[in-house]
Amino acid sequence: MLTVQHLTSGYGSAKILNGVNLDLGSKEVVAILGRNGVGKTTLLKTVMGIVATQSGTTELKGQNITKLPTHDIAKAGIGYVPQGRGIFDKLSVKENLRMGLRSRPDGSDEIPEYIYEKFPILLERSGQLAGTLSGGQKQQLAISRALCGDPKLLLLDEPSEGIQPNIVQEIGSFVRELVERRDISVLIVEQNLELIGLAADRFEIMVKGELVHRGLTSELNNEEMLKEYLSV
Ligand SMILES: Nc1ncnc2c1ncn2[C@@H]1O[C@H](COP(=O)(O)OP(=O)(O)OP(=O)(O)O)[C@@H](O)[C@H]1O
Fold it and tell me: Which positions, given as ranges, span the membrane (predicted)?
């Protein structure tokens, strides 16, 4: 599904990604873990074309998307939910969802039924300003907006940030549902081990802009490893 090879990128003269290699299969959920500031968000932004690739390649289902502008990467099939969610508070819930439809390759302007079935609050509050939603509801809206683009791959950046534990669980099981019922793969940057345990098949640990250690989610109970690589 996604193949990243020797990817480097950064901001001005600051090099942040130092040669990332990553393979994500179809119907797979992979979590990227690592301490603050190691480059996890930068990896998602580079895949998405928001931060320019300096060297290396990114392929989606065999298509080289490395140099494409962000809107074409979205159209090629990647949905992105940024850290902090990127919701437009001054637009209605429905208008936020409609923004996501712009990335649909088939040009459809219908919000997919399953989104409202899963999150009925988004239909109930359809005409309300998105800024009036709770943190958890905004996260549901942000994920739903990305799904409106009918992606094959979803990039989620810290979806658990600032939301209540019961919503964290709901999002974890929703991610699994997406993979199993909708054939979507997910790359998720996350610190919350409960959410990773619920959603991810395996993990990759980033240190100084490189993915240095990987394993199955079931191996995440190794305290020494967690101490070595993470701030827990
Ligand atoms: N727009 C920017 N301009 C300059 N430097 C940046 C910019 N965004 C991030 N950085 C720097 O790049 C490095 C990596 O940041 P990044 O956000 O990718 O880390 P992260 O692993 O996602 O951490 P966090 O969990 O804190 O978000 C940090 O040192 C950060 O200060």
Answer: none
Q: Which residues contact 131 (CB under 8 A, 6 or more apart)?
A: 87, 89, 90
Give the predicted TM-score (pTM) of the model: 0.93
Question: Looking at ligand 1, which residue's alpha carbon is closest to its atom 24?
Answer: 36
Nearest ligand 1 atom to alpha carbon 43? 18
Share of the chain above pLDDT 70, in %: 99
Q: Which residues, at least 6 apart from 229, have a Cβ–Cβ distance to it below 8 Å? A: 33, 34, 35, 205, 207, 212, 213
The answer to whether the beta carbons of residues 17 and 11 sit under 8 Å apart is no
- Domains along the chain with CATH numbers: 2-85+152-229 (3.40.50.300)
Q: Whose CA is nearest to atom 28 of ligand 1?
A: 37
**What pLDDT is stored for residue 166 in this prediction?**
86
Q: Given the CA of residue 38, which atom of ligand 1 is nearest to it?
A: 21
Task: Give the mutation target among 16, 80, 206 for probing the ligand 1 site: most ligand atoms within 8 A of CB.
Answer: 16
